[in-house]
Amino acid sequence: MRGYFGIGVEGISKPMNLGNLIRSTHSFGGSFFFTIAPVFNARQVKNADTSDAAKTMPLYTYDSVDELMLPRGCSLVGVELTDDAIALPSFRHPAAAAYVLGPERGSLSPELQAACDHIVKIPMKFCVNVGTAGAILMYDRMISYGRFPARPVHSRAAPEPLPEHVQGGQVLRKKRRAEAEAQQDERLREAADRDSD
After folding, report:
1. What does the DSSP assignment read for 17-47?
2. How many whole angstroms from its chain centre is CA 183?
3. Is the Cβ–Cβ distance between 161 and 152 less than 8 Å?
C-alpha cells in the first residue's frame, strides 16, 4: 500500500476504547498513534491492546492541539459527524495522513477542527464507539489504497484475479545520454564529409 497513516484521538477517557483503537491501528498497518489531552490509566490500556503495539509502533501524547506535531506533508483528517463533512465513501484519502477522532462523549474541539485539512464523516444515523469508528475508517483506507480484485457482479461468482504486475524496462540516463551524443557525433561527421566533397 502506498503512503502511510497514523491514528489519533482527542480527549479520550476510556482505557478499553483506547486500547482497542491502538490495537486496530497496529493491525491495519498504521505508522504511528497519538493522543491529545487524554485522561486514562496507561496500565488499563494494555488490557485491551493485546498486540502490545507500543513495542513496534510509535505512540505520542500531546497535552494540547497547539503541541500536535506531524511529519512534513502529512494531512490532518478529522472524523466528525457534521453537516459539512465529506462522506467517507466519497473521500479520497491523502497518501500521507493522520486521522483524528473525538472523545467518547463529545466532538472534536473547535481548535482541532480548525487545524484539520479535511473533515470526514461516516454516513450513519448517529455516532458509534470510537474504536468502531476508527476501524471503519482504516478499512475504508485499506480498500481505497490496497490492490484487491474487483468485486464480482453476482454474490456466487468468484472474484477475478488481479492481473500480474508488469514492470517497465530499466531507464539508464547515462546510456541514453551516451546514445544521443553518439548520434550527434555521427551527424557532425556526415556534415563534415559533405562539406569536404
Report:
1. HHHHHHHHHHHTT-SEEEEES----HHHHHH
2. 47
3. no
List the Cα angle 102/92/65 in 5-degree steps. 30
b/e 100-135 (16+ beta carbons within 10 angstroms → b): bbbbbeebbbeebbebbebbbbbeeeebeebbbbbb
Q: Which cell is 23 given?
A: 490495537
Q: What is the secondary structure of 87-113 as a DSSP string? A: EGGG----SEEEEEE--TTS---HHHH
Query: How far apart, in whole angstroms, are the C-alpha atoms of residue 108 and residue 25?
Result: 19
Cα–Cα distance list, 161 to 46, 152, 153, 155 (Å): 40, 10, 14, 16
List pLDDT tens digits, range 55-105: 888 889 899 999 999 999 999 999 998 889 999 999 999 999 999 999 877
CB-based contact 115:108 (threshold 8 Å): no
Query: Coil, strand or helix: which one is 55?
Result: helix
Q: Residue 185: phi, psi to the nearest 5?
A: -60, -40
Q: Whose CA is closest to 15, among 167, 123, 131?
A: 131
Write down the residue that cell numbers 556534415 correspond to: 191
Mean pLDDT for 96-121 is 93
Would you give the distance in Å from CA 11 to the centre of its chain?
Answer: 22
Q: Specify the 3-state DSSP secondary structure of 5.
A: strand
